[in-house]
Amino acid sequence: MGLIYSYDIQLPPRNVAGALIRVAELAPPTRDVPPLGVTLPGGERVVVPFTSGFRSEPVDCSAGGTFELDTSLMFRIDDAVRAYLEARGGGVEEHGRVQIGYVYATVRLASPLHPGYASIEFWAATSAMSRLFAASASVRELFTDLTAAAGGVCCLFDTGDGGPGEVCWLNGEPTRETIGGSRFPDLQALAATWPDPDVTVFPAGAFSAARKGVKAAAGKVRVARAGSLESRTAAWVGEVAISTHSLPSPGPE
Is residue 1 part of a domain? Predict the structure, then answer.
């Protein structure tokens, strides 16, 4: 059995839609897949440029539960990312970033670590990608930045092989704490440090960045694509922007 490493983001359930918009921003602008509609609790709908189970059929989680996404993400190039790509014949660079995927994502609307939170766990698809997850500061940065932007309380790096996990982000701050150490003897001790999810506020800066990122992505896609594919993508971007109306209103800057 190969290595299966992951980054697991814990966030309030009401922030899942905003997090998915942020993940959509990280997709390659030229990815040729039909838009995927996801319905969340409360009837909130988000459209993302990914598949679920390698299909584009709508995902209905209006009653809660779990769903999967097959994502492809743009990572900033560092030495570990460059070595990973060179071993596979290279990659196409765009604005200092390159596409890596598939990266599988499991979205749980009730986290197994804390029932008041949701989680989005990003899994490496291969052993080589798992080693990249462990070695690359750029990969770590992408997932901790995503945690911060989505109003997450914790980002946990998990080796999935019985080894100790590592806390990368906790309650608004980057960190490096090993699960099993004196501060966090187990995952229950970690979850006990999280604030009440009912009073955790979606960060105003991240909300603004998500909306700006959708507009920027729309511009890039219009340049990169043509014909019917451009039309589908323009529709996707419009639906994503419209879906943000259900997000909590940002607080004062």
Answer: no
